[in-house]
Amino acid sequence: MGRALKTEAIVLRSIRYGEADRILHLYTPRHGRQAAIAKGARRARSRFGARLEPFFRIAVVLHEGRTELHTVTAADTVDAYAGLRERAASLDAAARACDAVARLFETDDPHPEVYSLLANEMSLLARKPAATGETFAGPANALAFRLKLLLAAGLVPHLGACASCGEREHLTGFSAAAGGVVCASCEAAAFPLSEEAYGFMVTALGRPLAQAPGASERALREVERAVRETAEHHANVHLRAVPRVA
């Protein structure tokens, strides 16, 4: 065994391996994305219990081996986010959030702000529904989360002026190739971006995640396209579609 690595982590993914083991994809605040094997984790009397399931926030001890696959030697629950498992929509939103983090931040480079953002998103998704029945599992929250991920990755679209010529008015299109919004004179290779969609992007980036603005379905579709095309063009990353945004 190599040196021990003690860290908090969120379980992005947990895969069955062999007869009783699990392969874990973890995201940590100081060591980025890590892969580990939890030997015997699926046995009935495993010392790990259920705490290595997806979306758990844990305090874990990893021992480094000769490969990039570490070995889990201890794990304690920090937050199980139990509310996620009470609603299918919240569970699905959590899976998509973890998948987006895994795709955009796939190395061991430290991004503590991404870890905090993901933990915040899990907490919001696990909350009990409001009196109106609304939860944070909708597309507005998912898109605000992804915009903040792009910001952390250094990929956030340019929104203050035309990304091509610098014009600050008549920003009517979006071009991932140009790097953000574009004006009417530069929109030949862009898709139309409504004022509502533009306003959503600016406001979502400026507000805490819990205060993501609302928007119409049409505007959210435009924002989803802008986020998707930005990730594909600048990071060669394909993000899964946001629920209920075609």
How many runs of DSSP E, i.e. beta strands? 8
Radius of gyration of CA atoms, rounded to a whole number: 20 Å
Enter the CATH topology name of the largest domain.
de novo design (two linked rop proteins)
**Distance N to C terminus:** 48 Å
Named at the architecture level, the CATH assignment of the largest domain is: Up-down Bundle
3D structure, described in words:
- The chain is α+β, with helices and mostly antiparallel strands.
- It has 2 domains: about 5-80, OB fold (Dihydrolipoamide Acetyltransferase, E2P), CATH 2.40.50.140; about 90-235, Recombination protein O, C-terminal domain (de novo design (two linked rop proteins)), CATH 1.20.1440.
- About 30% of the residues lie in helices and about 25% in strands.
- The chain contains 5 helices and 8 strands.
- The protein has helices at about 90-105, 110-125, 140-150, 195-205, 215-235; strands at about 5-15, 20-30, 30-40, 55-65, 70-80, 170-175, 180-185, 190.
- A hairpin with a 3-residue loop joins strand 1 (about 5-15) and strand 2 (about 20-30).
- Helix 1 (about 90-105) packs parallel to helix 3, helix 2 (about 110-125) runs antiparallel to helix 3 (about 140-150) and helix 3 runs parallel beside helix 5.
- The chain is elongated.
- The mean pLDDT is about 95.
Provide tags for this entry.
single chain, about 250 residues, alpha+beta, OB fold (Dihydrolipoamide Acetyltransferase, E2P), de novo design (two linked rop proteins), 2 domains, five-stranded mixed beta barrel, three-stranded antiparallel β-sheet, 5 helices, about 30% helix
